[in-house]
Design brief:
Layout (H helix, E strand, L loop, with lengths): L1 H30 L6 H19 L1 E5 L17 E5 L14 H6 L9 H12 L7 H32 L2 E3 L5 E3 L4 H9 L6 H32 L7 H12 L9 H4 L2 H21 L18 H10 L7 H6 L7 H27 L13 H18 L1 H15 L20 H20 L3 H29 L5 H38 L1
Antiparallel strand pairs: 1-2, 3-4
């Protein structure tokens, strides 16, 4: 009897693992790693993590058949059901309750190479938010440059230890993958007393980061359009409203297949924009203000710069899914090394060259410093990229909100927002529209790109990239760690915590002051 039961459990676990791996691999392959951009890559892989979190609460219920005694025939297909909270079978993969991850998944898709994985990571940490790095140098000087290097080293290390938390040693002494996502790692650390607490904390951090990313897209769109056409009688707030009107159809999205086709175009446009900015800066190399780069820091504003720099390196959230879809996971460490080295060099050069060109006149979004003739063209490309990128983090945020609040079985706080036919109910659509409007209101009342970026980086960026990976690594693998690993983990946790708290407080103070100023106006 015991042998039969172990056999059944083994078959069920193998089936779940195969389905999970096929679903993740198919989704990534269909979306195309080479077509994914910075936050877009985070959105897709985050969606994968949401799917894994959605399934982590599943409980396998092996139905007993009449021949359950020893020596009975093996159970027929259909005897084994996967249930969530024991309430019933899961919906089919094509149903609406499977969400976007199910719709975009496929079977039999090839896994990605180390180069393709590296391209995806590069896009994630070389996104359009690097345009705020020269502003960080303005308030940090050479220390800001050091922080760009330091953040690259730390994020590379925490990415590796996060992946290490996915593996454990089995009875035969072999290292095997026992977890699939960031959420699984968080839940394992909080088990057995609070088996779902860690996953909920990670999901809340993800939601905040995704919604703040959407807000930043609206802010940067309004800012860029206003500075591109300053002679028009249209304010920055009005441009933000126009941008939101264009983005309102995102509430009606059922999947991201159509939007994903523009991903590669967005990436190429962004690289062209960076080249144009650097080319212009090099043309003014004779006027570079080397004497303006100091070793002192602006105590009040430099903590905000910390959040900006950290936010530009955020990629940990999708690394577990990325590593799980590589043809050779052993190449993951090498891939992380060269991607972060390249990012460090490019970001440092871009930030320094841009700051040397405009010195104390450096603005929050560096393209606003360009001459009007060039600025209009470059900013229009950036606005197009921002508008095309908005649906991805928005849709990922909607997915996790719907799953946790409306589709979580007996644990859901509200009724299901989908009808029996799989269509979104009218009030569910209203809530989606409200989320779009919320991003607009935040962009209108706090139209400060650097402050919002610094707040997000200090709050969720530092938590997901610095604090949680080092904490999880110590919790899960502390018995097998060497002393220098323990030292690094503790140091990263302490330094990351100090930087996070400091940056969050200063960013929040700046946002409150900006909010009061706008309210008075």
């Amino acid at each position: 009897m015991a042998t039969l039961l172990r056999s059944k459990l083994s078959n069920v676990a193998t089936s779940v693992s195969n389905k999970s791996q096929a679903k993740m691999s198919g989704m990534f392959a269909r979306m195309g790693f080479q077509a994914a951009t910075d936050e877009e890559a985070v959105g897709f892989a985050h969606c994968d993590d949401l799917d894994m979190e959605h399934r982590q609460g599943l409980q396998m219920d092996i139905l007993k058949s009449e021949g359950s005694e020893e020596g009975a025939e093996p159970p027929l297909e259909g005897d084994i059901h996967y249930q969530r909270d024991g309430t019933g079978p899961l919906p089919p993969s094509g149903s609406k309750e499977g969400g976007v991850c199910s719709e975009l998944s496929g079977q039999g898709k090839p896994k990605i190479t180390a180069w393709e994985a590296g391209w995806n990571v590069t896009n994630a940490i070389q996104g359009m938010f690097v345009l705020g790095l020269p502003y960080a140098i303005l308030h940090g000087g050479y220390l800001g440059l050091f922080l760009i290097i330091f953040a690259a080293v730390v994020c590379c290390y925490t990415g590796k230890i996060l992946i290490a938390c996915l593996y454990e040693e089995n009875e035969d002494g072999e290292i095997v993958r026992v977890r699939d996502s960031y959420v699984d790692i968080a839940n394992a650390c909080c088990a057995p007393r609070f088996p779902t607490l860690g996953g909920r904390v990670v999901n809340v951090a993800q939601i905040i980061e995704l919604v703040m990313t959407c807000i930043l897209y609206v802010v940067v769109s309004g800012n860029l359009m206003y500075n591109s056409f300053p002679n028009l009688p249209v304010s920055q707030k009005s441009w933000s409203i126009i941008a939101t009107a264009v983005l309102l159809p995102c509430a009606f999205l059922k999947n991201l297949k159509a939007v994903s086709k523009f991903s590669l175009l967005c990436t190429l446009a962004h690289f062209v924009i960076n080249i144009l900015v650097i080319a212009y800066c090099l043309s003014r190399a004779r006027d570079w203000a080397w004497d303006k780069v100091k070793f002192y820091i602006d105590v009040k504003k430099f903590p905000i710069s910390i959040g900006i720099i950290v936010f530009s390196y955020t990629s940990q959230i999708f690394l577990p899914s990325l590593e799980g879809n590589m043809q050779n996971p052993k190449e993951f460490h090498c891939m992380m090394n060269w991607t972060h080295i390249a990012a460090c060099i490019l970001k440092g050069l871009f930030a320094l060259v841009a700051y040397l060109t405009w010195a104390d006149e450096t603005k929050e979004v560096i393209t606003d410093n360009l001459p009007s003739t060039i600025r209009a063209v470059v900013n229009i490309f950036l606005v197009a990229k921002a508008l095309l990128s908005y649906p991805l983090p928005f849709f990922a945020a909607v997915e996790v909100l719907e799953r946790s609040l409306f589709q979580d079985g007996n644990r859901a706080f509200f009724p299901n927002c989908y009808g029996g036919d799989g269509r979104l109910k009218s009030w569910g659509l209203t809530l989606r529209c409200a989320l779009v409007v919320f991003t607009l209101l935040m962009a209108i009342y706090v139209p400060h790109f650097a402050l919002l970026m610094g707040l997000t980086g200090s709050l969720t960026g530092a938590g997901l990239c610095f604090l949680l990976p080092s904490l999880f690594h110590l919790k899960l693998l502390w018995r097998k760690l060497l002393w220098h690993h323990v030292f690094f983990d503790v140091a990263i946790f302490v330094i990351g915590g100090i930087c996070s708290v400091s940056g969050f407080i200063h960013s929040l103070e700046g946002l409150i002051e900006a909010f009061r100023t706008n309210a008075e106006d």
